[in-house]
Amino acid sequence: VSDSFLHKLFGRAGKATPSVEEARTDLDRLAAERPELQPIVAWLGDMLAELAPPEIPPMGLTLDPAVARARLGEGIPLLRGETLNLDPREFHRRWRRACEALEICQPDPAVATLASALQETGLKPGAMVEAVLAGRPESVMQLAEEHGLDPGLTSTVLRFTLFPTVTALANSLAPLREGAAWEEGYCPTCGSWPLLGEFRGLDQSRFLRCGLCASAWEVPRLWCPFCGNRNHERLGFFHQEGEEASYRVANCEECRGYVKMATVLSALPPLHLLVVDAVTLHLDFEAAQRGFTNPP
Ligand SMILES: [Zn+2]
Ligand SMILES: [Zn+2]
Protein backbone atom coordinates (compact mmCIF):
# COMPACT_ATOMS: atom_id res chain seq x y z
CA VAL A 1 0.00 0.00 0.00
CA SER A 2 2.69 2.47 0.98
CA ASP A 3 4.54 1.59 -2.20
CA SER A 4 1.67 2.53 -4.42
CA PHE A 5 0.98 5.61 -2.31
CA LEU A 6 4.56 6.75 -2.71
CA HIS A 7 4.41 5.92 -6.35
CA LYS A 8 1.32 8.08 -6.73
CA LEU A 9 2.82 10.93 -4.78
CA PHE A 10 6.16 11.04 -6.54
CA GLY A 11 4.90 9.84 -9.87
CA ARG A 12 2.74 12.92 -10.15
CA ALA A 13 5.58 15.34 -10.76
CA GLY A 14 6.02 15.91 -14.48
CA LYS A 15 3.01 13.78 -15.33
CA ALA A 16 0.80 14.97 -18.10
CA THR A 17 -2.10 17.18 -16.99
CA PRO A 18 -5.66 16.08 -17.89
CA SER A 19 -5.87 18.31 -20.97
CA VAL A 20 -2.66 16.74 -22.29
CA GLU A 21 -4.06 13.26 -21.70
CA GLU A 22 -7.31 14.20 -23.41
CA ALA A 23 -5.48 15.67 -26.37
CA ARG A 24 -3.33 12.54 -26.67
CA THR A 25 -6.36 10.25 -26.52
CA ASP A 26 -8.09 12.28 -29.22
CA LEU A 27 -4.95 12.35 -31.33
CA ASP A 28 -4.67 8.54 -31.24
CA ARG A 29 -8.37 8.04 -31.90
CA LEU A 30 -8.56 10.53 -34.78
CA ALA A 31 -5.35 9.30 -36.37
CA ALA A 32 -6.19 5.60 -36.04
CA GLU A 33 -7.53 5.37 -39.57
CA ARG A 34 -4.73 7.34 -41.18
CA PRO A 35 -1.54 5.26 -40.96
CA GLU A 36 0.15 7.59 -43.47
CA LEU A 37 0.10 10.32 -40.81
CA GLN A 38 1.82 8.06 -38.28
CA PRO A 39 5.21 9.85 -38.10
CA ILE A 40 3.69 13.29 -37.53
CA VAL A 41 1.12 11.90 -35.10
CA ALA A 42 3.85 10.13 -33.11
CA TRP A 43 5.85 13.34 -33.02
CA LEU A 44 2.93 15.47 -31.85
CA GLY A 45 1.94 12.87 -29.26
CA ASP A 46 5.46 12.99 -27.92
CA MET A 47 5.43 16.80 -27.84
CA LEU A 48 1.97 17.47 -26.35
CA ALA A 49 3.05 17.76 -22.72
CA GLU A 50 5.74 20.20 -23.82
CA LEU A 51 3.27 22.29 -25.81
CA ALA A 52 0.69 22.81 -23.08
CA PRO A 53 0.48 26.52 -22.24
CA PRO A 54 1.57 27.35 -18.69
CA GLU A 55 -1.21 28.72 -16.50
CA ILE A 56 0.66 31.92 -15.80
CA PRO A 57 2.24 33.61 -18.82
CA PRO A 58 6.00 33.34 -18.31
CA MET A 59 6.66 36.87 -19.46
CA GLY A 60 5.09 40.00 -18.13
CA LEU A 61 3.67 41.99 -21.01
CA THR A 62 0.90 44.43 -20.32
CA LEU A 63 -0.80 46.65 -22.82
CA ASP A 64 -2.65 49.85 -22.08
CA PRO A 65 -6.34 49.16 -22.90
CA ALA A 66 -6.57 52.40 -24.90
CA VAL A 67 -3.52 51.42 -26.98
CA ALA A 68 -5.02 47.97 -27.50
CA ARG A 69 -8.34 49.42 -28.65
CA ALA A 70 -6.63 51.84 -31.02
CA ARG A 71 -4.55 49.06 -32.57
CA LEU A 72 -7.50 46.73 -33.04
CA GLY A 73 -9.56 49.58 -34.49
CA GLU A 74 -6.92 50.09 -37.18
CA GLY A 75 -6.54 46.41 -37.96
CA ILE A 76 -3.20 46.21 -36.15
CA PRO A 77 -2.60 43.06 -34.06
CA LEU A 78 -2.04 43.58 -30.33
CA LEU A 79 1.53 42.29 -30.35
CA ARG A 80 2.71 44.30 -33.37
CA GLY A 81 5.93 46.09 -32.46
CA GLU A 82 6.06 44.54 -28.97
CA THR A 83 9.16 42.76 -27.71
CA LEU A 84 8.76 39.35 -26.13
CA ASN A 85 11.14 38.83 -23.25
CA LEU A 86 11.83 35.22 -24.08
CA ASP A 87 14.16 33.23 -21.89
CA PRO A 88 16.94 32.28 -24.35
CA ARG A 89 17.80 29.05 -22.54
CA GLU A 90 14.17 27.97 -22.53
CA PHE A 91 13.86 28.88 -26.22
CA HIS A 92 16.94 26.80 -27.07
CA ARG A 93 15.68 23.89 -25.01
CA ARG A 94 12.25 23.86 -26.64
CA TRP A 95 13.75 24.25 -30.10
CA ARG A 96 16.12 21.33 -29.57
CA ARG A 97 13.37 19.23 -28.02
CA ALA A 98 11.06 19.77 -31.04
CA CYS A 99 13.86 18.80 -33.43
CA GLU A 100 14.95 15.76 -31.42
CA ALA A 101 11.40 14.43 -31.20
CA LEU A 102 11.04 14.96 -34.94
CA GLU A 103 14.29 13.14 -35.67
CA ILE A 104 13.13 10.11 -33.73
CA CYS A 105 9.92 9.89 -35.77
CA GLN A 106 11.38 10.80 -39.13
CA PRO A 107 15.17 10.75 -39.41
CA ASP A 108 16.19 13.49 -41.82
CA PRO A 109 19.54 15.34 -42.13
CA ALA A 110 17.62 18.64 -42.47
CA VAL A 111 16.19 18.13 -38.98
CA ALA A 112 19.60 17.33 -37.50
CA THR A 113 20.99 20.53 -39.03
CA LEU A 114 18.06 22.50 -37.66
CA ALA A 115 18.52 21.07 -34.15
CA SER A 116 21.97 22.64 -33.85
CA ALA A 117 21.22 25.69 -35.99
CA LEU A 118 20.91 28.14 -33.10
CA GLN A 119 24.41 27.31 -31.85
CA GLU A 120 26.11 26.59 -35.12
CA THR A 121 24.69 28.86 -37.79
CA GLY A 122 24.08 31.96 -35.71
CA LEU A 123 20.36 31.91 -36.49
CA LYS A 124 18.91 34.37 -33.97
CA PRO A 125 15.65 33.56 -32.15
CA GLY A 126 15.02 37.29 -31.60
CA ALA A 127 15.22 38.07 -35.32
CA MET A 128 12.73 35.30 -36.14
CA VAL A 129 10.27 36.37 -33.43
CA GLU A 130 10.56 39.99 -34.50
CA ALA A 131 9.77 39.04 -38.12
CA VAL A 132 6.71 37.03 -37.08
CA LEU A 133 5.31 39.80 -34.87
CA ALA A 134 6.01 42.37 -37.57
CA GLY A 135 3.72 40.43 -39.91
CA ARG A 136 6.64 39.24 -42.06
CA PRO A 137 6.61 35.44 -41.70
CA GLU A 138 8.30 35.22 -45.11
CA SER A 139 11.36 36.83 -43.49
CA VAL A 140 11.71 33.74 -41.26
CA MET A 141 11.87 31.59 -44.40
CA GLN A 142 14.43 33.99 -45.86
CA LEU A 143 16.55 33.92 -42.68
CA ALA A 144 16.41 30.12 -42.75
CA GLU A 145 17.61 30.04 -46.35
CA GLU A 146 20.43 32.43 -45.58
CA HIS A 147 21.55 30.06 -42.84
CA GLY A 148 21.32 26.99 -45.09
CA LEU A 149 18.21 25.61 -43.39
CA ASP A 150 14.96 24.17 -44.68
CA PRO A 151 12.57 27.19 -44.66
CA GLY A 152 9.31 25.31 -44.07
CA LEU A 153 10.79 23.17 -41.33
CA THR A 154 12.32 26.22 -39.64
CA SER A 155 8.98 28.08 -39.58
CA THR A 156 7.19 25.05 -38.16
CA VAL A 157 9.77 24.38 -35.43
CA LEU A 158 9.68 28.09 -34.55
CA ARG A 159 5.90 27.99 -34.24
CA PHE A 160 5.97 24.93 -31.97
CA THR A 161 8.83 26.42 -29.90
CA LEU A 162 6.83 29.59 -29.26
CA PHE A 163 3.39 28.00 -29.00
CA PRO A 164 3.06 27.42 -25.21
CA THR A 165 4.47 30.82 -24.25
CA VAL A 166 2.65 32.89 -26.86
CA THR A 167 -0.60 31.00 -26.27
CA ALA A 168 -0.44 31.80 -22.55
CA LEU A 169 0.36 35.42 -23.40
CA ALA A 170 -2.55 35.66 -25.88
CA ASN A 171 -4.84 34.24 -23.23
CA SER A 172 -3.78 36.94 -20.79
CA LEU A 173 -4.39 39.63 -23.44
CA ALA A 174 -7.78 38.24 -24.50
CA PRO A 175 -9.81 40.60 -22.24
CA LEU A 176 -8.42 43.54 -24.25
CA ARG A 177 -10.16 42.19 -27.33
CA GLU A 178 -13.59 41.92 -25.76
CA GLY A 179 -16.12 44.01 -27.64
CA ALA A 180 -13.56 45.15 -30.22
CA ALA A 181 -14.40 44.42 -33.84
CA TRP A 182 -11.81 42.60 -35.92
CA GLU A 183 -12.44 42.17 -39.62
CA GLU A 184 -9.05 40.93 -40.81
CA GLY A 185 -8.00 37.50 -41.99
CA TYR A 186 -4.89 37.49 -39.80
CA CYS A 187 -4.74 36.97 -36.05
CA PRO A 188 -5.83 39.96 -33.91
CA THR A 189 -3.22 39.07 -31.28
CA CYS A 190 -0.04 38.13 -33.15
CA GLY A 191 -0.84 38.79 -36.82
CA SER A 192 -0.27 35.23 -38.09
CA TRP A 193 -2.51 33.72 -40.76
CA PRO A 194 -5.05 31.20 -39.47
CA LEU A 195 -3.97 27.60 -38.98
CA LEU A 196 -7.54 26.42 -39.39
CA GLY A 197 -11.11 27.44 -38.75
CA GLU A 198 -14.10 26.18 -36.82
CA PHE A 199 -17.79 25.98 -37.56
CA ARG A 200 -18.97 26.23 -33.98
CA GLY A 201 -22.05 25.04 -32.21
CA LEU A 202 -25.63 24.81 -33.39
CA ASP A 203 -25.57 27.99 -35.44
CA GLN A 204 -22.26 27.01 -37.06
CA SER A 205 -20.69 30.43 -36.55
CA ARG A 206 -17.35 30.59 -38.26
CA PHE A 207 -14.19 31.28 -36.26
CA LEU A 208 -10.57 31.29 -37.38
CA ARG A 209 -7.82 30.02 -35.11
CA CYS A 210 -4.20 31.08 -34.93
CA GLY A 211 -1.54 28.38 -35.02
CA LEU A 212 0.99 30.45 -33.07
CA CYS A 213 -1.06 31.87 -30.20
CA ALA A 214 -4.35 29.89 -30.48
CA SER A 215 -6.43 33.10 -30.57
CA ALA A 216 -9.91 32.79 -32.08
CA TRP A 217 -11.80 35.44 -34.04
CA GLU A 218 -15.21 35.32 -35.63
CA VAL A 219 -15.49 35.87 -39.37
CA PRO A 220 -18.23 35.71 -42.04
CA ARG A 221 -19.15 32.23 -43.20
CA LEU A 222 -18.53 32.97 -46.85
CA TRP A 223 -15.39 35.05 -46.98
CA CYS A 224 -11.75 34.48 -47.86
CA PRO A 225 -9.44 35.50 -44.99
CA PHE A 226 -6.53 35.96 -47.37
CA CYS A 227 -7.97 38.27 -50.05
CA GLY A 228 -11.34 39.31 -48.61
CA ASN A 229 -13.33 37.76 -51.48
CA ARG A 230 -17.04 37.46 -50.62
CA ASN A 231 -18.30 36.32 -54.01
CA HIS A 232 -19.88 32.98 -53.19
CA GLU A 233 -19.47 31.82 -56.77
CA ARG A 234 -15.71 32.12 -56.36
CA LEU A 235 -15.62 30.44 -52.94
CA GLY A 236 -16.00 26.71 -52.42
CA PHE A 237 -15.63 23.76 -50.12
CA PHE A 238 -14.24 20.30 -50.62
CA HIS A 239 -13.88 17.35 -48.29
CA GLN A 240 -12.89 13.70 -48.30
CA GLU A 241 -15.51 11.02 -48.50
CA GLY A 242 -17.20 10.37 -45.18
CA GLU A 243 -15.63 13.41 -43.49
CA GLU A 244 -18.00 16.17 -44.54
CA ALA A 245 -19.57 16.46 -41.10
CA SER A 246 -16.17 16.87 -39.42
CA TYR A 247 -13.62 18.47 -41.72
CA ARG A 248 -13.82 20.52 -44.87
CA VAL A 249 -11.56 22.81 -46.81
CA ALA A 250 -12.82 26.31 -47.61
CA ASN A 251 -11.09 27.47 -50.77
CA CYS A 252 -10.99 30.69 -52.77
CA GLU A 253 -10.81 30.80 -56.56
CA GLU A 254 -9.67 34.43 -56.52
CA CYS A 255 -6.38 34.05 -54.63
CA ARG A 256 -6.18 30.22 -54.65
CA GLY A 257 -5.96 30.28 -50.84
CA TYR A 258 -7.56 27.75 -48.53
CA VAL A 259 -8.25 27.17 -44.88
CA LYS A 260 -9.24 23.88 -43.25
CA MET A 261 -12.52 24.03 -41.32
CA ALA A 262 -13.46 21.72 -38.45
CA THR A 263 -17.03 21.33 -37.21
CA VAL A 264 -16.93 21.61 -33.42
CA LEU A 265 -19.34 22.06 -30.51
CA SER A 266 -17.22 24.70 -28.81
CA ALA A 267 -13.79 26.31 -29.17
CA LEU A 268 -10.96 23.80 -29.48
CA PRO A 269 -8.52 24.05 -26.55
CA PRO A 270 -4.99 25.00 -27.72
CA LEU A 271 -3.62 21.46 -27.75
CA HIS A 272 -6.66 20.15 -29.61
CA LEU A 273 -6.07 22.81 -32.23
CA LEU A 274 -2.71 21.20 -32.95
CA VAL A 275 -4.28 17.74 -32.85
CA VAL A 276 -6.96 18.63 -35.40
CA ASP A 277 -4.37 20.27 -37.65
CA ALA A 278 -2.23 17.09 -37.56
CA VAL A 279 -5.06 14.65 -38.23
CA THR A 280 -6.27 16.71 -41.20
CA LEU A 281 -2.91 16.89 -42.98
CA HIS A 282 -4.39 14.76 -45.74
CA LEU A 283 -6.57 17.79 -46.58
CA ASP A 284 -3.47 19.96 -46.94
CA PHE A 285 -2.08 17.43 -49.42
CA GLU A 286 -5.34 17.41 -51.32
CA ALA A 287 -5.49 21.22 -51.36
CA ALA A 288 -1.94 21.32 -52.75
CA GLN A 289 -2.90 18.79 -55.44
CA ARG A 290 -5.80 21.00 -56.43
CA GLY A 291 -3.46 23.97 -56.70
CA PHE A 292 -4.43 25.80 -53.49
CA THR A 293 -1.90 27.21 -51.05
CA ASN A 294 -1.94 29.21 -47.85
CA PRO A 295 0.52 31.88 -46.82
CA PRO A 296 3.34 30.96 -44.39
ZN1 LIG B 1 -1.98 34.64 -33.13
ZN1 LIG C 1 -8.99 34.60 -51.55
Textual characterization of the structure:
A six-stranded mixed β-sheet has the order 3-2-1-6-5-4, with helices on one face. Helices cover 46% and strands 11% of the residues. The mean pLDDT is 91. The chain has helices at 2-11, 18-31, 38-51, 65-73, 88-105, 109-115, 117-120, 125-133, 137-146, 151-173, 270-279, 281-289, and strands at 194-200, 205-210, 216-219, 235-238, 247-252, 258-264. A hairpin with a 4-residue loop joins strand 1 (194-200) and strand 2 (205-210). The protein contains twelve helices and six strands. It has 296 residues and is of the alpha+beta class. The relative contact order is 0.13. Bound molecules: zinc ion (ZN) (2 copies). One zinc ion (ZN) binds at residues 224, 226-227, 229, 252, 254-255, 257. One zinc ion (ZN) is lined by residues 187, 189-190, 192, 210, 212-213, 215.
Summary?
The protein is an alpha+beta fold and 296 residues long.
